[in-house]
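The material for today's practical consists of a large collection of protein records. An example says more than a description, so a record of this kind follows:
***
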Amino acid sequence: MEKRGDKYFDIKKIARELFWKHGFKRVSVEEICIRSKVSKMTFYKYFSNKTELAKTIFSDVIEESEVRFREIMESSVSPAEKIREVIRMKYNSTADISSEFMNDFYLGGDTELIAFVKERTRVALDIFKNDYIRAQEKGIFRNDFKVELLIRAQTKLTELMDDEILVSLYKSRQELIMEFAKLLVYGVVGHGQE
């Protein structure tokens, strides 16, 4: 593998934008090369194929999320703010993802890519779960709830973002995300009420 220079990062940046907007199937290596102003030969110096590029990009995103999650969990903000920040992080990392992306990367795309995404997501969720458990052990979060419920709720939130009826009830997806965060943190009782 050749040393990673600006062209490597240009390819990844453009491919990420295209994958997030159009999914995996509709984006070609040729289109990535044209938009990132590199030759196919340059593309293949860095990536053996489009699937390897997609896997690299997905891994980068997951690693960024893991670092940000750990920063949130280690911060001195309140437990309620930690949950809000985690949900905000989840939203920000998925806000510009199209339904085509969701389908191609999680449901009906390249089988190798889907298997990779599922496994990489499973590993990331294990990391998040262990950090939540540590927070329970430190007394940051209640220890009488199952961490798996929180993980599953956060995972389902991504699916809710594609529910057009639900989304139509809010001014934006961001507003829906924050409503979900408030529901998780405060339940249906207003903040400060008993």
User: Anything to note?
Assistant: Residues 111-137 form the longest helix (27 residues). The mean pLDDT is 85.
